[in-house]
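pls read this protein.

:::
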Amino acid sequence: GQAGAGGSVNWLVPLPLFVGAAVGAVYVRRHPGERRAEPRTVFTTAEEAAFVRKRARAAELLPELGLLIAEAPVALPGGTPGMERALDAYAAAGTVLDGARDLADLAGVVALVEEGTAPIRAAMNAARPSRRRLLWRRSVPAQPHTPLTCFFNPFHGLATAGEVSWRMLGRRDLLTVAVCAECAAALAARRTPQSLTVRHEGRLVPYYEVPPEQSLWAATGYGSLTGGPLAPPVNRGDFRRAAEQR
């Protein structure tokens, strides 16, 4: 999917190129006695490389949010609660980054940074109208807890297409989820959006198929399934407790 315009985050890595090169290397002639790489090892290496790259980028997001908070006008939209939401999201993002084990956790950092950025960007736009398009090209949600990132993959960026109805494979109930423009187009064309996957019980599955007691992200859909902010459950220990169940 494409990231939303403005302050959103979009840094997906073209894994097929990396994996293709790695798989090709398996078939290169080796010296006698050299151990042959197994395909599973190749793919695991690709996953680890993607994790390292995205963790490095996620680590850069925290000081960026910290600077925004430090430079924010005294009066934020919503008053003191606006600043509290930003600070809570900043603390939660640090907790998740420290305990991140997979890409779903790093996507949680992205979602939390967006959650903390929203009231700051709104205040900066109000203070500097001439820079509005540079700082925030999407209107700030009327409800401060509206999910900001794409349900299917927060790395896609902001949920610029709003909320859509979606039925998970094998289930009858319809879910209302916030999506990016590309995922909305995929659903409209009756195609499955490119979801964020994680390794669970030895195989790659969409993150939302992990049992919710083992993943805060599966339980919340990065905010889409709960309609509330992500920072409070992280800061009260839900992220840590879920990770201990994996």
Q: What stands out?
A: The chain has nine helices and four strands.
